[in-house]
Amino acid sequence: MVLIMSRLNIAVIGAGYWGKKVIAQILDLARTGDEMNLYSVADSSPIALENCRKEFGPLNYRLDYRELVSDPKVSAVHLCSPNQTHFEIASEFLRQGKHVLVEKPLAMKSREAYELVRLAKEHGSVLCTGHVHRFNNGVKGLRRLMDSGVLGDIYYLRLKWTGFMAIQNNREVITDLGPHPFDICNNLLETWPKKISCKGRGYRTSAGYEMASIYSEHPGGFDAGIELSWLDMEKHRDVTVVGSDGSAELDCIEQRLVLHRKGAVERVMVVPNNTLREEILHFARCIEYNSSAEHYPNRADGTLGANVVRVLETTRKSLEEERTIQVEIPRGEPIPAGGPMPGIQAPPSMGSL
Fold first, then answer.
1. Where in the chain is the domain with CATH 3.30.360.10?
2. Of 23, 201, 294, 299, which one has the fewest beta carbons inside 10 Å?
3. Euclidean distance between the first and final Cα of the chain, in Å?
4. Measured between alpha carbons, how far is 203 from 201 in angstroms, rounded to an integer?
């Protein structure tokens, strides 16, 4: 079946560091003939918009995203605004029947994240989450290696997500760096953790955690150890899988995959790809097939994003209460935003979080 897709008008909300990367990709896709158009860029900061104007030239810039919520020309929104704004902004667009891609995390609270899933279903909209490593060829190669049996019985995963960042007074490292490692664990193991224990602290500030060591236990006897840090001078986005017959190490940035077996080290062939570009194209394809009888799988859907938020909540709870916590992933219908999730209390206030 061949679908004829009209040109997709996408608005980007948030023109900071990541928003500018998204803008550049959409503009390039539009130039190379893909059926999409950057309709507008919205940010409440005149400085951010001026920086975009210098970098990208004249575009439809807006200081208030609300001007776009009911604009019939806007088909879809790529949301790159600060984390604490995700729920409010995404829900406004979903209620108007717009398609929405929200950068991670989908929301700050799981009850809000599951509410976005419910709104998307109610209004027939596509909801994607920016778990960009779902489209990383290195992660795909590592998954194939695990499935091939060359590593033998899988014992555990080790993930290192670190890099230096200046003192943050309104953020903490679990919410900032944790989403991708937890998503990758789910992608590789096809399970969510059943238990989580976490230790962490802030060294330069008392406003939030700057490093965290997380241990997650998964069904089937699989475990994962995750290191998060804003203090490490070297940037790492590394995944290691250890098995009975060998181990595999993946640098998610370079998409470099290495296999270690007794007496041998082998480079596994991976063709690196532009993961953000693939994420945006996937969002467009989901929209294209949304009203079609033909199924197109949403590989980064809202439920995935909401489950990651649920795991992040559990991790913070473990750290605060200094104990191992059971993870409860909801099944069935999304939980309304007005009601609390079982077993979770609101985390202590951290600045604007």
1. 137-268
2. 294
3. 46
4. 6
Residue with tokens 């009850």: 111
CB 324 within 8 A of CB 141: no
Q: Which two tokens stand for residue 261?
A: 């077996």
Name residue 58's amino acid.
P
pTM: predicted TM-score of the whole model, two decimal places: 0.91
Mean pLDDT, 10 residues at a time, the chain of 353 residues: 68 97 97 90 97 97 97 97 97 98 98 98 97 98 97 98 92 96 97 97 86 97 97 97 98 98 95 98 95 89 98 97 96 47 33 24
Give the C-alpha distances (Å, rounded to integers) separating 257 from 132, 136, 329. Answer: 18, 12, 31
CATH number of 137-268: 3.30.360.10
Spell out the residues 6+ positions from residue 329 whose beta carbon is closer than 8 angstroms to its own: 192, 307, 310, 311
In terms of phi and psi (left: phi > 0; alpha: psi -120 to 50; beta: otherwise), the region of 197 is beta
CATH superfamily of 8-133+276-299: NAD(P)-binding Rossmann-like Domain (3.40.50.720)
Report the alpha-carbon angle 106-117-295, nearest 5: 110
Angle (deg, nearest 10), helices 110-123 and 86-95: 10
Q: Give the orientation angle of helix 179-189 with respect to helix 137-148, to 10 degrees.
A: 30
